[in-house]
Amino acid sequence: MGGEPTSFLFGYVVVRGELVVGGGVVVGGRVVVGSGVVVGGGVVVGDDVVVGRDVVVGGDVVVGGGVVLGGDVVVGGDVVVGGSVVVGGDVVVGDDVVVSGGVVVGGDVVVGGGVVFGGGVVVGGDIVVGGDVVVGGDVVVDGSVVVVGDVVVGGSVVVGGDVVVGGDVVVGGGVVVGGDVVVGGDVVIGGGVVNKSGTCQLRKGTCG
């Protein structure tokens, strides 16, 4: 089913323009797929999904119901995208990533392999999230943020501004981090800590 220039209707699935689909793909009902989309083998797509133009979805990906993948999004292999997730902008999602239901990802975002996003997370701006990062539920990450290494971010955390977090860092629930902050190397930031302005550099130790 690739290279055809016209639109097709397969049951409740609407395909607009050219489409390349690998083997063993299962697509639910009321799905809309834009032109130039590439879908790898073994992909499962739920109901009421919208896939925008020029989206690339790797092999063995599960896309839950009600998901919106905007234009130019790239999703790696072995990724799980929960229900009602919205991904838009120049977003690249690496292999073995889990995006829980209700997550919103937008802007120039790069998500490395092995990352787990909890439910209700909002990620926007020039964000880089590296490998093996776990982000809890209802977290907001915005601005020029870089999160890399074995980082764990608890629930209801807000991270904004020019923030860099890297290397064996644990950020507890309810923390607010913003403005020219660098956190790196075996750091634990306890729940309820607020750092909204100024410059803060934590290299090793405990805050909170």
Walk me through this protein's architecture.
This protein has 2 domains: 1-88, UDP N-Acetylglucosamine Acyltransferase, domain 1 (3 Solenoid), CATH 2.160.10.10; 109-208, UDP N-Acetylglucosamine Acyltransferase, domain 1 (3 Solenoid). By secondary structure, it is mostly beta strands. The strands form 3 sheets. Strands 1-2-5-8-11-14-17-20-23-26-29-32 form a 12-stranded mixed β-sheet, with no helix packed on it. It has an 11-stranded parallel β-sheet with strand order 3-6-9-12-15-18-21-24-27-30-33, with no helix packed on it. Mean pLDDT is 84; it is low at 3-9. A hairpin with a 2-residue loop joins β1 (8-10) and β2 (13-15). It is elongated, with a radius of gyration of 18 Å. It has strands spanning 8-10, 13-15, 19-21, 26-27, 31-33, 37-39, 44-45, 50-51, 56-57, 62-63, 68-69, 74-75, 80-81, 86-87, 92-93, 98-99, 104-105, 109-111, 116-117, 122-123, 127-129, 134-135, 140-142, 146-148, 152-153, 158-160, 164-166, 170-171, 176-178, 181-184, 187-189, 194-195, 200-202, 205-207.
Quick synopsis:
The chain has 208 residues and is mostly beta strands.
Features:
single chain; 208 residues; mainly beta; UDP N-Acetylglucosamine Acyltransferase, domain 1; 2 domains; 34 strands
Summed up, the domain count is: 2
Rg, Cα atoms, Å: 18 Å
Determine the number of helices (DSSP H or I, runs of at least 4 residues): 0
Q: Would you count the extended β strands for me? A: 34
CATH topology heading of the largest domain: UDP N-Acetylglucosamine Acyltransferase, domain 1
Strand content: 35-45%
Largest sheet, described in full? 12 strands, mixed
CATH class of the largest domain: Mainly Beta
State the separation between the terminal residues, measured CA to CA.
Answer: 56 Å
The CATH homologous superfamily of the largest domain is termed Hexapeptide repeat proteins
Mean pLDDT: 84
Structural class by helix and strand composition: mainly beta
